[in-house]
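Appendix B. One record, verbatim.
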Amino acid sequence: MKNLEEKKYWIWFSLIKGLGSKRKQKLLVKYKTPEEIYYLTEQELTQINGIGKEIIKNILDKNIKLSVKKHMDYMMKNNINIININEKEYPNILKEIYDPPISLYIKGNTQILNNVSIAIIGCRQASEYGKKVAKYFSYNLSKKKINIISGLAKGIDSYAHIGAVCAKEKTIAVLGNGLDAIYPRENMYIADKIIEEGGAVISEYPLGTKPEKMNFPARNRIISGLSKGVIVVEAKEKSGTLITVDFALEQGRDIYVVPRKY
């Protein structure tokens, strides 16, 4: 892990509420680094198009700036890194999507982010058939040195990760909350095994971010964005799984659907 002191401005940048990835990209085009933005005055900020009073307030917030040290201490103690979109470790395939995250928090193996990956996703209330299928595809694909991507949710996601872990291969879990907590809590053991087998747990959200409902659609664009294709095992008509499929189609990814068992 690189010295986090060198990345403190990227950590700060991730803490600015109300500033989405597209606007962050525009700011970085103009100012090059978060450090440049960090030292902008209120007068300079008011001259930027698309930055309202609330975001200016957040950028200037001294409490947010003071909290960076606490985040760095926690990250160092718990082996959490942050990689930004300009670093070589950042997955190239993720840069292709419409709104790639500017930075990713990661616990585990950063070297696998640019490996060929397939997402395996599905519903939380999975059938026994669905669980077996997710585990089967995950196990066999990971044995071919293909990373398995999923969201660490109950049901199909869990068995997608378990299949790769059982194969003693790499899998990446993408969370919709900060890496200071695993959601759902009962999957903490799976998260530990993912890291133990050389995989990774990642999130675009900073420490302290709760697993709020609105975070998961944004998380799903990363699951599909990291993957060459998406395998759908079981999905409800209105579900996060189909949101991921929509993102995958927009991103030009291949979609594979497992036939239903009758």
